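note to self: dont lose this again. the chain is below, predicted strucutre after it. 211 aa total, dont forget to put it in the shared folder this time
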Amino acid sequence: MNILVLVGGGTASGKTYVINEVCKHIGTDNVCHLSIDDYYKDQSNIPLEERRKQNYDHPKAFDWKLINSQLLDLKNNKSILKPTYDYTIHTRSEITELVEPKKLIIVEGIMALVNKNVRSLADLTIFINATRERRLLRRLSRDQVERKRTFDSIVEQYFTTVQPMYEEIIGPSSYYADILVNNDGYDNRSIEVLASVLKALLNGEIKPTKN
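---
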């Protein structure tokens, strides 16, 4: 059975950056990297203006049944057709992506450690920490460039739903993490240490914590 690693953390805490850097250390031949963001529920039947008002930082925004079944398939060495999410229209795109299973499956997202059923599939859980101020600055930069959002809309969403949901749901999910990684913008050895742990998992030098 393949190894599943879940990586949680607040918005713009640097989850994708950390995992990409880790993959540079361990190589990508045996690694499959997914984002839980692609599993936001399909909202194509809802008008765009209504989609913009949804709370995307709450567990109810995600298709947990599909997440659970597809991660289980990957663990059992079965390929999946993963949905893809279009941030500009706040719903899934029409494109699906064929994902082939690999020995190490890394799944990251704000909700990665929130759902009990998904956590039960994990062999290792990680939480990426960054301060509220650092996450806001990163989100402003990212969303204006990559997601074509306005400054005002980003700030309004951050303080209306993003930060309150972090304090209520996402931050407390760090309780379920085996490893806490600081990514607050200054150099540290966390990425190298994390890469060493995942290499050891791949090589069977340490046993998974969950299963």
